[in-house]
Amino acid sequence: MSEAIVVSGSSNQALQLGGIGVGARMFRARPSVLELVHKSSRAENVKYGEFRVVSTNEHLGNKIRIVLLAVPQEQREWFRDPTKFSKENKACFSLDGIRPHERAVDPPAMYCRTCPKGDINWQKWRQTKNAADLPPCGAYYHLLIADRQTQTPYYLNVKGKSFLPFKQAMEQQMQGLLAKLMANVRAENKKRGYTYVTLQDSETGRQWQDFRPTPDFVVPEGQAQQPVMPMPNLFDISFDVESSSRDGGPFVMSFKNFALMKPEDRAEFGQLYLDLLEQKNEMQNQGNEEAEAAAMVTEIQPAPKGEVLPAQEPITI
Questions:
Q1: I want to staple 181 with a disulfide (CB 3.0 to 4.6 A). Which of 232, 249, 255, 289 is the partner?
Q2: DSSP state, residue 173
Q3: pLDDT bracket for residue 301 (50, 70, 90)
Q4: Could you tell me the residue range of the domain that residue 68 belongs to?
Q5: How many domains does the chain fold into?
Q6: Is the pLDDT of residue 36 over 80?
Q7: What does the angle CA 226 – CA 233 – CA 23 come to, to the nearest 5 degrees?
Q8: How would residue 28 be classed by pLDDT, with cut points 50, 70 and 90?
Q9: Residue 271 resides in a domain
Q10: Would you say residue 302 lies in a domain?
């Protein structure tokens, strides 16, 4: 027997109510590329120092509040001419920071770690302190984010002098907030009769952490054991990204005002994450699309005149 609610009404009533087509798979949000417009931009009708949607030229101002929908990915790119940031001038790029992408035009090495254009140049720079000896292949962070207010998903690359501030914000502010959230979850689950343990796959040896029932835990008489309280996610936290320039120099991003969202807001962003994950699993050419997004002509600022700290393990949930 069907459990559907039966209603009566005309087509005209449906038009008046609206909502036709809303939620259809064809109209689901797909990430657009967002960039910070620098003074070196060759695009027309742009506003320097503002965040711009590349496909539509819509400007979002110099400050946006965002939510991370995925762990930031460290990527790399090398331009033959370090003053021309164009698709034609991009000789090599990597989407995982490990090896050049298969669509890279002229990869200098099989692996990024041993590449003569990469981080091995830091050793020479430490001796000479000459900007010409900085690694010509630059590392940057590739983000999948969503606007806090509109829930619109974007790709955003954090490059140049914004690289280190972002890394520090993730390791200090984001990690600190996640640690507090995790501590609260562990304490609450301990009261509910669950222990946070390390598990290991007997075949692959892969390890991970999860909650398991605490041995000999006694549920209070007359009560039912509560379910496990879920662990926090990246998209439980929102923060500001703001553009600024000092003394007429390049525009640099700053990351601040990290805060936990309300449960109902976290649930909405969680659904957006699941929708994007479903799209990725359905689309066979997703890898090529991400490569095209990474290869798009977006303006970037010069590499920082200093040493970039070595990458650490990304935050995982």
A1: 232
A2: I
A3: very low
A4: 25-158+233-295
A5: 1
A6: yes
A7: 95
A8: low
A9: yes
A10: no
